[in-house]
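Work Package 4 report. The design task specified in the project plan requires that, given a folded chain encoded as structure tokens, an amino acid be chosen for each position. We show below one input record used in the internal validation round.
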């Protein structure tokens, strides 16, 4: 599919100027709206504003910009059908071959503690999802990009072949529907929260992949770890500093250990094996807390998960290194502690933030 005309309208403007400049250098005309059009024009990029295409102004404080036949006809026309091409000619509609669009930051807005219902409503995008869904539906004729991380690969494909392949367009369409699906799920969840609807008629879940896992509950199964909407907390926000990939069972046990550690005050340690506590202790020093936790059940702790409440120091790390441990999770690590723990080639070392558990009425 050759690209001659692109429509760019993005909330996340990361890399969009560079993308548009690269497209224009390839002779691709740019149509844009609102703040995106201004950003591109300010960067010296030739751009046609949407009102110049539609012949209609942006109205209702920008709520209506791209909802027009000259936009959606250009996106939705199936170029494989002569009747669609003929109707475009009759209506004076120019085809749009590439749609670059991502949506208003609804999740980020409602995550703010002081957000009002009015603030949230104004971040419910209408024109954006309409364009994304239209382009994704018509992937046989149009490419749609919702993720700035895809800009480089799309440009590379255009440079190599002068077009965007059907395989790529289909893959981009999938990502686009995932994008709009997650967006709608976050809006539904927000409104359900306002209504205190704990058990809605339809439960909509949307997650972002954190990592591929080594394997699932059993070694022959594939698995991945997803974080739910909003800002990740707990293990979803953890950074793996060392060791091989986590498995499903590693993650399950680490989650249990880390949650248990959140209930301990002061210097504390928890050891979990197969979702069962082997030992839990608090003491004046972290190394002593680990020693006491280990002595609760020195047999079951073999191959277990260790969670610590405080920054792991060298003394604690040396005690942990004396036994076979699958995972260590702590808020942070001293350099000396990491030096000791990293001598264990396969030990997974996780640096994790605190859990943010909802309050129950």
């Amino acid at each position: 599919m050759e690209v001659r005309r692109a429509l760019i309208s993005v909330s996340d403007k990361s890399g969009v100027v560079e993308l548009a400049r690269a497209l224009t250098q390839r002779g691709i005309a740019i149509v844009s709206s609102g703040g995106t059009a201004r950003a591109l024009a300010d960067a010296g990029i030739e751009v046609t504003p949407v009102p110049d295409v539609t012949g209609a102004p942006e109205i209702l404080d920008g709520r209506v910009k791209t909802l027009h036949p000259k936009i959606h006809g250009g996106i939705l026309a199936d170029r494989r059908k002569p009747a669609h091409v003929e109707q475009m000619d009759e209506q004076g509609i120019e085809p749009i071959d590439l749609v670059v669009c991502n949506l208003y930051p609804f999740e980020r807005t409602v995550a703010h503690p002081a957000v009002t219902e009015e603030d949230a409503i104004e971040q419910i995008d209408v024109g954006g999802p309409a364009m994304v869904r239209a382009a994704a539906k018509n992937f046989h004729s149009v490419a749609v990009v919702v993720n700035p991380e895809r800009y480089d690969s799309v440009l590379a494909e255009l440079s190599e072949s002068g077009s965007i392949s059907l395989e790529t367009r289909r893959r981009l369409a999938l990502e686009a529907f995932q994008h709009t699906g997650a967006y709608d799920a976050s809006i539904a969840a927000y409104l359900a929260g306002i209504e205190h609807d704990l058990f809605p008629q339809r439960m909509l879940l949307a997650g972002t992949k954190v990592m591929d896992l080594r394997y699932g509950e059993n070694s022959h199964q594939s698995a991945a770890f997803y974080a739910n909407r909003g800002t990740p907390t707990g293990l979803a926000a953890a950074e793996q500093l060392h060791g091989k990939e986590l498995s499903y069972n590693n993650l399950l046990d680490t989650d249990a250990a880390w949650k248990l550690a959140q209930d301990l005050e002061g210097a504390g340690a928890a050891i979990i094996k197969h979702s069962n506590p082997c030992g839990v202790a608090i003491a004046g020093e972290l190394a002593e807390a680990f020693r006491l936790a280990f002595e609760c059940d020195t047999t079951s702790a073999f191959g277990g998960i260790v969670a610590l409440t405080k920054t792991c120091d060298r003394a604690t790390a040396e005690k942990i290194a004396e036994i076979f441990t699958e995972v260590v999770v702590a808020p942070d690590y001293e350099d000396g502690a990491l030096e000791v723990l990293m001598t264990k080639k396969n030990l997974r070392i996780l640096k994790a933030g605190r859990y943010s558990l909802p309050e129950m009425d």
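The longest strand covers residues 276-283. Validation will be extended to a larger panel in the next phase.
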